[in-house]
Every structure is written in C-alpha cells, then in structure tokens.
Amino acid sequence: MGKPLVTVFIPMYNCEGYIGQALESILNQTYANLEILLIDDGSTDQTVEIVTKYNDNRIKLIQNKENKGIPYTRNLGVEQANGKYMAIMDSDDIALSNRIERQVYFMERNQDIDAIGTYYQMIGGRLKRVKKSNITSPEEIKVSLLFFSPISNPSSMIRLRTIKKHNLKYNLNYFVAQDYGMWLQISKVGKLAILPEVLLQYRTGHTNITKRTKTKKASRRKQILDSIHRDALSFYNFKLSSQELSDFNEFFNDNPQAALSNQTMYQIPNILKKLTDQCHNDFDVKLFSKITQKNFTFALSNHRLSLLKKIRLYKKTVGIRYFTFSLKELTFLMSKHIYRSVKKF
Q: What is the pLDDT of residues 119-139, one digit of tens each?
C-alpha cells in the first residue's frame, strides 16, 4: 500500500521575511507524498513573488482577491485540500525534516485519533525554549479544552475525513482563537492527542497576529474565549449561574495583564468544586480533577497577584474532591512569579 497523500496547508499574509524558510522546511521533508497548499490572503509585499520562484509540482498556490481574514482562509484550505491528512503550518515557522513522517506514522497506527499536535521549540527570542505538554491523551485534552487549548495549531495534523464528514468549519467571527474553536468541535465528535516529540520550530519575538491581538484587541479576544468556554461547558451539561460563568471566564482568561477581582478569587474554588461534582456522565472524576487542577494552576500563574495571594488561593483548592497538594505545582507557581518579577527590571 502506498503512502497516503498529505496536504500541508500554509496560509500566508505579508510574510516575505519568513515564507522561504517555512516552505523549504516542507519541501525537504523525509516524507515526499505531499501536496503543499499555500493560500495568500491579499499580501501587499513580496510573499507571492517569493513562492512563485520555487519550481516544484507539489506546490499549489491560491490567492484571495482581497484580504479575507484567517478563518475564511482556513476554511478555504480545508475545502481545497486533497490529502487524507492535512498538516497545518504557519508561514513563519520551520518544520523539522521528519515532522510529516512522524505524524503520519502515528495517525496510521491510531485510527481512532482525529487530530494531533506535537511539542515544539520556540525560536526568534533570546531563549530557545522547548514547549512540552503534560496533557497528551484524548481524555486529558477533552478536559483541558474546557479551559484552554493545549494544542499548538501550527504543529497539528488533522484527519480530513472527520472534518468533512461532520462539516466542521472555522468560525468566521473568531479573528483569533479559531483553532481553539475547531479543536473543541473536533473533540465533540472524535479524539485529539499530542505526539510527545519536538517536530516544529515556532517563531516568536516579532510582530505576529497573536502578539498584536493580545495588546490591541484584548477585550474582543476575551469575548471570543468566553464564547468557546460557554460552548464547551454547555455541551457537557455543566450548570453554572451567570455570575459563576462570569467568574470562570475572568479567571481562565489568557491575558496576563487582566485584573482579577476579589469576587472571582473568592468564588473560583467553589466553581471548581461545582464542576467536579457535575462531571460524572462524560468524564472520569479523578482524571477530570487532575487536569482541572493543572489548568487552574496554569491560569493562576498568569494573573497579576502577589505571590502570597497565589499560594493562599492554591491551598484553598486542595480540599476539592481529588485535588491534591503538589509541591511540583507550587514550585511552578513560585518560579514563574519570580521569573516575571525579575523580567520587569
């Protein structure tokens, strides 16, 4: 049996400084049965001209007549993809040479998995950190998606049959976090996993979409994340009051500059307890508590609170069913707080 066709999808917009490296990292993959689908979303620089210089019959270039936005372009990518799998690649990142080979190997041997992400290395800044997730299994990811997305979008590979069978679409109203919304939709009908291998170099330290939206459109970004949270909680029949939902969304907000009210700090342990009490039908309670505690600790580490307040709030959750005191998590809270405090100077 021949190797299945993989569509590598690269959406582009004004990325002349990086698209050459990104494209070459795919052209030089150890896995050769590729369709490389590049969709330009109305670039005004030399992006398209750079791509057209490459002479490889695997390249398929589509140009939007005008800037349509990333959700529209992602939906067009799904529509135009011909592969059994679609690997998503950002125009400023670099795929390791065996990325596609390793992901196909995993997907072919795990037919019940509908999408995967991988570990990745951050490049472009002063530190080349490797980002690993301790949440990798389908059940762990299903819980985590109630709070945050644990999957790095540009490292992902999707089984296209699942997307097309269920007519899943990226939400056109999500100018950010459209990938988070898609992972949630896939999790409702299938399974997601994270392959514990570093297969991508993710570029930071330059003006990208995520950086711009966090600083200029934080309020609108929060509205989108709130919408995804409501969808996830509703799908699994969690019952929170309007005030509890507001406090939940305030706490599980990925903007580290957001203020955290005393009301939310007081209520969040009660909300977490309520969620663990209601999770029986769709989740294993012990696993749900374990992953919820991890997401709580991660969110707490991002908020602008004194270290003493963080430690006190962490300790208040330990009495919740199956929440346990973890020296490792407490150390993480403290080290991240100290790092951010030193970074300011």
A: 999 998 776 789 999 999 999
Both 162 and 241 in one domain: the answer is: no
Q: Is 71 helix (H, G, I), strand (E, B) or coil?
A: helix
Q: How far apart are CA 55 and CA 190, in angstroms?
A: 38
Q: Is the pTM of this model over 0.85?
A: yes
* Rounded Cα distance, 53 and 36, in Å: 15
Asked whether residue 65 is assigned to any structural domain, the reply reads yes
DSSP for 316-336, please give it: HHTTSTT----HHHHHHHHHH
> What angle (nearest 5°) sits at the alpha carbon of residue 137, between those of residues 296 and 149?
45
Instruction: Kindly report the backbone phi and psi dihedral angles of residue 60, in degrees, each rounded to the nearest multiple of 5, phi listed first.
Output: -125, 115
CA 7, 159, 253: angle at the middle one, nearest 5? Answer: 100
Q: Is the pLDDT score of 207 beyond 70? A: no
Query: 13 with 104, same domain?
Result: yes
Domain extent, residue 328, equals 236-343
C-alpha span between 117 and 47 (Å, rounded): 27
Tens of pLDDT, residue by residue over 231-248, are 999 999 999 999 999 999
